[in-house]
Structure formats: structure tokens, C-alpha cells
Write a structure and sequence with these properties.
The longest helix has 55 residues. The N and C termini lie far apart (94 Å). It is built from 4 helices and 5 strands. It has 2 domains: 55 residues; 106 residues, 2-Layer Sandwich (Alpha-Beta Plaits). It is of the alpha+beta class and 184 residues long. α3 crosses α4. The relative contact order is 0.12. The chain is rod-shaped.
């Protein structure tokens, strides 16, 4: 009977040790998960704060976005305007400004559009004109008034005929201009 009691005590001790080991193992596992979750929360806290700040400033950001879109309207043709229509409109505006400045427009041509970037289309125009230096200066100042903005890519000016001091020189002018349209 002594032997049987010792065996049953060993079984109880072994069972208690297995239960104790599983409780300790579970505790270690829970502790490791707690440490991992604490590290993850520390990583996520700045992101959450940044997101909360963006959400708090949403109306201000929306207003700033609308103002930026309005400002872009002064520089870009809208996406809903057909490229050919935008090119013809640009050509007519440039011809009107150059003529108002005193230049005689000989020819102008809208070149095929280029997609220089994924979000913008480039509308190009070449124009040839003649006139005096003062008319050229006046026309160049007038180009600033065109909306959406027109950019001068190149300007070539040469004197026509013989140079005479007593008479203003007649100039031959060739310009390459461009404007931008938002790509739909």
C-alpha cells in the first residue's frame, strides 16, 4: 500500500507540475502578446494623431483645396474643354493681343497637343508677325492679360530690310507659345 500511495502522489505531483507549466507558459505567452501590442500601439499613436489632426482640419483643407483649384483656373484650361477648342481659343486670344499691340500677324498654327505629364496636356502655338519694337513690347505686355496663362517658349526677332536710324525698324517676329490643359 505504501508503494501505491507513493505512486499516486507522484501522479498528483506530475499532474500539478503539468498544470503549473501550462499556466506559466500561458502567462509568458500573454506577457509577450502584451509587449507586442504595447509596441504596436506606440507605433500607431503618431499615425492616429496625424489622422485625427487631418480629420479635425478637414474643412480648412477643403477650403484650401478649393482656393488652389480656383488659382489653377488662371493658368490651366479645364479638363472639360476639348483640346482643339482650347487651342483655337488660345490662338484667337493671342492674335487679338498681338494685333491690339500694333503687330501685323502673318500666320499662326496650333500644333498637335503633347502630353508632357500624366495630368497635363500642352497646347502649342507658333505665330509669325511683323511690326516695330514698340509694338512688340506692347504685345508682350498684353500677353500677360490672357487667361488661362500663355507661356512664351521661344521668341525670334530679326530686322527686316536695311537698318536706318531716322525710321523705326520693321521687325520679323516668330514666337512659340504654349498653354496647359488639365488632362481628363
Amino acid at each position: 500500500m505504501n508503494l501505491q500511495v507513493v505512486k499516486s502522489n507522484w501522479v498528483l505531483v506530475a499532474t500539478a507540475l503539468v498544470l503549473l507549466a501550462s499556466i506559466i507558459g500561458g502567462g509568458v505567452y500573454v506577457y509577450q502578446k502584451h509587449q507586442w501590442a504595447t509596441v504596436r500601439l506606440a507605433e500607431l499613436e503618431p499615425r492616429y494623431a496625424r489622422l485625427a489632426g487631418i480629420l479635425a482640419a478637414e474643412s480648412g483643407l477643403e477650403q484650401a483645396n478649393q482656393q488652389a483649384d480656383a488659382m489653377l483656373g488662371a493658368y490651366l484650361y479645364p479638363a472639360d474643354k476639348v483640346l482643339n477648342q482650347a487651342g483655337n481659343e488660345m490662338q484667337q486670344q493671342v492674335r487679338d493681343v498681338l494685333s491690339a499691340g500694333g503687330l501685323r500677324v502673318g500666320s499662326s498654327q496650333v500644333l498637335p497637343p503633347k502630353a508632357d505629364s500624366t495630368s497635363l496636356d500642352r497646347i502649342q502655338l507658333t505665330i509669325k508677325a511683323e511690326g516695330e519694337l514698340l509694338a512688340l513690347q506692347t504685345a508682350m505686355i498684353g500677353l500677360k492679360s490672357i487667361k488661362p496663362a500663355v507661356f512664351v517658349d521661344s521668341l525670334s526677332v530679326s530686322v527686316m530690310g536695311a537698318a536706318r536710324v531716322e525710321v523705326p525698324q520693321n521687325l520679323s517676329i516668330q514666337m512659340e507659345l504654349s498653354a496647359w490643359r488639365v488632362h481628363p
